[in-house]
Amino acid sequence: MSDLIHLVDSVEDISRAAIQLRGVAVNKEMDPRTVLDLFERWAAALQGNGMEAVPGVAFFRLWLRQGTLKPILERELGQGSVDGDWREEGQAKLRVFPLGVVGHWPAGNIEIQPVLSLTCALLGGNTCLVRVPSRLLESTNQLMKKLVTVDRDGILTERIQLLSFDHSREDLQSAMARNVDGAMIWGGQEAVARVRALPFPHWTRMAVFGPRLSVAAMDAEVWSQPDERRSWCERIARDVWQFDQQACSSPQVLFLERGARGAIDNFIEELREAFRKENQAHPRREIQPALTSVICLARANWLLDNVANRAWFSPSPDWTILLGQGTDIPKPTQFRTLTVLLVDNLLDAIEKFDGSVQTLGVAIGNPEKEDALAQAAGRRGVDRIVKLGRMHVFGSPWDAMDLIRPMVRIVRYVPSRDQKIPAKQTSLSSRP
């Protein structure tokens, strides 16, 4: 096991790690501007040297940029929050303080998720206790090594404890829960329910990102235009390939509006070409036999289910396009398998959304029509409506939730006398 990720086998191991983190959280203040500066350096260190082989690393680099994070901080925590100062609000002063120790339970299918989750807590000045799923040990170690190279004074790394233990160890799961002030929980329904049932202290604040799926929608005005069709198909392919279609923001279905002006075969041919190019640029390095069976079975079932259904796919289980019709979202196959469903009216599909859809990627020719679709989607539980090609752009709010705000306390201070609060308060124990 890497020295960056600690294999733990006892409750005492976790308690010691939490005590160390709590001491740092209480005694060492860290303002957001320092975090932003180190994140910018971390982003630069993630370029080259084979780092592009880690799925999602290109996306993570963009997330770490100040241009991404500073607006999020100011929107969630208020103007001036980047400097970590008190700010005036009427007769009161407001200032952001960390919760303390934040526990992270990332899902095991997204390589960058352990580090992505902890960045949200670090921006609030917290320390992080992270359980790294066994499948993500190598990728997490690679990413963290790059942070170590730029964080020479240990400003961030001393605030992070990465742990590895089997998910079935209820004693270790419970020990981790008992020692945190905040929790960021990611994953499927069963995993989320199991973590939420752990014995957290009553003051623990939770941010839960449970199982969702995402879809895309394109109207006839857009896809029937030959000069635009290729670029839109390339955007769809990028959204499908990112995270191997396993993220909640991955499009599983493309609802395609029928149109008299364009032949569907022309669109499918452009989409096939976009898939071939994306696969050439980002080929699979390996594939599990069980995954091969899932993909092949999905292809066969689709063609046998309805004689009108059609399918196009690579000779190997690299990518699959399934064409049919209807407004119901089929069970996702994932792993670069996109179902294209023809509909007479895109609203007919959106009106069947039941709250499980997280992101709707759109390509609509008429702004008024798009606005009507967005409002209908919002009423039916969709949290993000974005342009195709940007379905994975991680921003706040996410799942209709703030990312940093849940893991901080905004303290309200009304002075006993009219006075100005110093820009930086050093410690409550520092008295004249």
What does this structure look like?
Mean pLDDT is 90; it is low at 425-432. The protein has 14 helices and 16 strands. The chain folds into two domains: 5-210 and 399-413, Aldehyde Dehydrogenase, Chain A, domain 1 (3-Layer(aba) Sandwich); 213-387, Aldehyde Dehydrogenase, Chain A, domain 2 (3-Layer(aba) Sandwich). 38% of the residues lie in helices and 20% in strands. The strands form three sheets. A seven-stranded mixed β-sheet has the order 11-12-13-10-9-14-15, with helices on both faces. The protein has a six-stranded parallel β-sheet with strand order 1-6-5-4-7-8, with helices on both faces. It has a three-stranded antiparallel β-sheet with strand order 2-3-16, with no helix packed on it. It is globular. It is an alpha/beta fold and 432 residues long.
The CATH architecture assignment of the largest domain turns out to be 3-Layer(aba) Sandwich
Q: Regarding CATH, which class of the largest domain?
A: Alpha Beta
Strand tally is 16
Q: Which fold name is given in CATH as the topology of the largest domain? A: Aldehyde Dehydrogenase, Chain A, domain 1
**Rg calculated over all Cα atoms:** 24 Å
Number of domains: 2
Low-confidence stretches: 425-432
Q: Report strand %.
A: 15-25%
Query: Main sheet: which strands, in order across?
Result: 11-12-13-10-9-14-15
Derived from helix and strand composition plus strand pairing, the structural class reads: alpha/beta
Proportion in helices = 25-40%
Give me the strand/helix succession: EHHHHEEEHEHEHEHEEHHEHHEEEHEHEE
Task: Give the end-to-end Cα distance, rounded to a whole number of Å.
Answer: 49 Å
Q: Please count the helical segments.
A: 14
Mean pLDDT: 90
- Principal-axes geometry comes out as globular
Could you give a short account of the major beta sheet? 7 strands, mixed
CATH superfamily of the largest domain: Aldehyde Dehydrogenase, Chain A, domain 1
